[in-house]
Amino acid sequence: MKKFLIIGLVLILITGSLMAMGIQDKNQNNVTNTEPVAVERVIPQNAGQVMFSFSGITKKVLPVVVEIDTVEVVKQKINNFFTFNPFDFFFGGNPGTEGGKGNQPKERQFERPGLGSGIIINQTDDTVYVLTNCHVAGKADQITVKLYDGKEFEAAKIGEDSRMDLALISFKCAEKVPVASFGDSDALEVGDIVLAVGTPYGFESTVTAGIVSGLGRKSNPASGGNISTFTDYIQTDASINPGNSGGALVNMLGEVVGINTWIATQSGGSVGLGFAIPSNTAKRIATDFMTKGKVEYGWLGVSIDSIDDSRYPGMAQNLGIEGKSGAMVFNVFKNSPADKAGILPGDYVIKVNGTDITDSNHLTKTIATIPPKERVSFSVIRDKKEKVLSVVLETREDEDKVQSNRDIWPGFIVLDLNEKLCQQFDIDAKTKGVVIAGVSDGTAASKANFQVGDIIQEINDRAITNVGEFYTALNDNRTSKKMFQISRGGQSILVGLIK
């Protein structure tokens, strides 16, 4: 009888471990499964051992995760009004001056220490490459890498990218070091067990366990910090705290499936809401760093937004896009890939290379992941009809250069008139037209004195009563000169723009 009990207990333990590992019929409540089980989903240890310990996994992972200590030299100007040389007072100077040169503010420097984690991703000869977050090493003037065995090395930056919040650093080491294995982040499923490895609060080689709580999460600006909007995130309840940034999120094969990046918290500590950059994204960025020294993004050349009735009342109906997900094109950069391919203001992008676009953020991320010079298919809704356009993307310039290029068409955004807007801009409720809700600085529209609150009632003698009619008239290619009849403060004026 005891033998039967022991055998039964072992079977129960093994069954429980298999269920924890996800080797279970998705449609049944028991472990019977006639479908073949993918080998890569099975932990390379016996099930009973894994159930009670992750030590085999951590032994593989801990040596590839490093501590990163940084120092940023910060310069700050100080006023010297109350610090002056008394000899200057008596011999030609004035109170609050140095050497009679006037009250010039001085500059002082101080060092700001930082702490984070990183992952060893490659070693070529004596050069070791470590991937981490940009907010860990991007602004650092001094970088020290501390290995699992306690050895420390001075490191240098290879590349940094604030858009994706990733950076690559390197250090010299003649000895061979362990290198991380990367897993397929696209294969993750909600409920998968994961471990987070890093240096929270300076406690090096810390391992916490949890599950994948969510996939495809978007950044939340309310969480604070410079959180990238160029990628989706893996959400996990494995404890992540300050110092974990840049560390590894690993699966039960000991493979890196994410780069721990940020937490959602009100207290500053972990509340079970951690977010990691997917490994497939990180690998692509790391490859760009090592081969090009920077990350190259595809550039389309449009200003876009998601459409909803709370911010753009009536627009979906007037454009014929009700119930359709996508991204609205409000402005097009002149001579951009979008402009050359015939994308127009008012186009509503619903697909890229056959993939449905959910919103404007999704479109931005999709374009960012497509290499420059690649031909891309765009499905758009224009004048309530679907149209397919072929676009060859170009390389996106630095954000400052993109923002400084204000050569966009038309350079402003319009909304359908409604009761609320009429009250806001003191417009007669019977007035017909569309109201300008925003004008981009430095554009031709701005220089032509288009103003927020202006009511556009005609374009080239064509009456405008809603946003759909506005874009149809604006995109009429029979002439590049557009004459806008505008009502401003009860006065009718005529303003011209040339595309």
What integer value in Å does the Rg equal?
Answer: 29 Å
For this structure, the quaternary state is single chain
Instruction: Please identify the structural class as seen in this structure.
Output: alpha+beta
**How many distinct helices?**
13
Shape type = elongated
Q: Residue share in helices?
A: 10-25%
Strand count? 27
Report the β-strand fraction as a percent range.
Answer: 25-35%
Poorly predicted segments: 1-46, 81-100
Q: How does the major sheet shape up?
A: 7 strands, antiparallel
Span of the ends, CA to CA: 90 Å
Summed over residues and divided by their number, the pLDDT gives a mean of 82
Characterize this entry briefly.
This protein is an alpha+beta fold. The protein has 13 helices and 27 strands. Strands 14, 15, 16, 17, 18, 19 and 21 form a 7-stranded antiparallel sheet that branches.
Give an overview of the whole structure.
The protein is built from 13 helices and 27 strands. It has 499 residues and is of the alpha+beta class. The strands form five sheets. Strands 14, 15, 16, 17, 18, 19 and 21 form a seven-stranded antiparallel beta sheet that branches. A six-stranded antiparallel β-barrel has the order 1-2-3-6-5-4. It is elongated, with a radius of gyration of 29 Å. It starts with a helix and ends with a strand. Residues 1-46 and 81-100 have low confidence and may be disordered.
